[in-house]
Amino acid sequence: MTNPPTPPLAGADRPAKPVNQWKTLDKDLRRISQLEQATQFVGRPLVAIGIALVFIVFCGVAASILAGGANGTLIIVAAATIGAYMALNIGANDVANNMGPAVRANALTMGGALAIAAVFEISGSLIAGGEVVSTISGGIVHPETVADPDTFIWVMMSALLAAAVWLNLATASGAPVSTTHSIVGGVMGAGIVAAGVGAVNWPTMGQIAASWVISPVLGGIFAALFLAVIKNRLIEREDKIAAARFWVPLLIGVMCGTFTTYIAMKGLKKLMAIDLGTAILLGLAVGVAVTLLTRPHVRRQSEGMENRKKSLKKLFGLPLVISAALLSFAHGANDVANAVGPLAAIVHTVSEHDTASQVTIPFWVMAIGAAGISFGLVLFGPKLIRMVGTEITKLNPMRAYCVALSAAITVILASALGLPVSSTHIAVGGVFGVGFFREWYAERRARALGLQKGKPVPQDERGRRKLVRRAHFLNIGAAWVITVPATAVIAALLFLLLDRLT
């Protein structure tokens, strides 16, 4: 006979629950941990700002040493610190256009993109950066109207600071804008205050205004055309791997040949003089050679791959990394000189006590530009890289490849036709072009397959199907349009302030 179950203990005989003696301490430690995490989150941007300030101060100290105590050393130091600030903002804003598509397409990690961009921007600046630069930003202001050295210095100083401030504001708001247009607007605004409205070369300003439309439209058209070719010749083919073995080496060859022409025209001025015809022949030779050399590599890489779109994306990874590196080299060779041109002009005017339509850029001035761009990119660039690469439209390696190739081809075509274009506007226009082409293609395919069955699609559903974020389209377009007027106003106010103080 089994024993009846033991009744539960009552009262004092029931075992007591374990008591957490450290309950209060645990709560306090949890609060301290949350406070530490919040402090780290808040302090993270302060670390970047602190490093940037150290760099600016270092550039000022270096400029004072290099000036050697000559007359006007204080002005050179002030200009060097402003130039360093400008270079930081170029790195934070302008370089994102080269790296954003590659990062979004997962061809590069954020760290890898920052490292490649920093190395190739510096290389382009120091190896192939222009020795001579126009001091009036391409003839925006007639040189004879600001012939007085003191007036000229304050015009350049105001333009440089105004452009840097505007780039800083644009980066903070997530808008990629043109560095060259920022400088142009600054020179125009300070020049008008210094010498009147007649001092401005208005036909040149009209060409720059036209480039607001020309640059993104050309970039978008070329990017859409390349994507159409890839879809027609690769993605939609029944045997995608066989098509890739023929077309991918050819597309890599086109890319390398195009960038060879681009760099020969825009990035080798310092090393040798190359005309357009020679640059095109050089690019053609390189393109044919690369096509032949990469065919065995692509064949080996594609062996065993599944016959689907995902396999094609892997074949475009390396070309996309190469294109991002070459874009950074070309940007460093071409745009850095424009950015530090006002600083070089100030150094020349202080040293020689006269103004000149063109001046030689000292090595230390170019070094400030190159180093500043790298620091700015690493410290503040990820925000714009993410925006360009992820928030406008979805990019994969093939779409990002189209954006990079369209940027190089558009610059070559514009240079041949004498059209003033912005590399920033072209790259972002290419991203929009890819997105709008995808929208058009998706709607066309849906109609062809009869998915809509003739029924009207509600407006909210049509909006949900859009592949390009309209808010970014409007915001970026507005930032482009107001860049020149905004920097002109800022520079004008700065010139008035400096003129009053001196």
Automatic annotation (TrEMBL):
This is Phosphate transporter. Belongs to the inorganic phosphate transporter (PiT) (TC 2.A.20) family. It holds the Pfam family PHO4. PANTHER family: PHOSPHATE TRANSPORTER (PTHR11101). GO terms for cellular component: membrane. GO terms for molecular function: phosphate transmembrane transporter activity. GO terms for biological process: phosphate ion transmembrane transport. It is a multi-pass membrane protein. The chain crosses the membrane at residues 46-67, 73-92, 113-140, 152-171, 183-202, 208-230, 242-265, 271-294, 315-333, 361-380, 400-419, 473-498. It comes from Cereibacter ovatus. It comes from the Bacteria. InterPro entries: Phos_transporter (IPR001204). It is found in: Membrane. Keywords: Membrane, Phosphate transport, Transmembrane, Transmembrane helix, Transport.
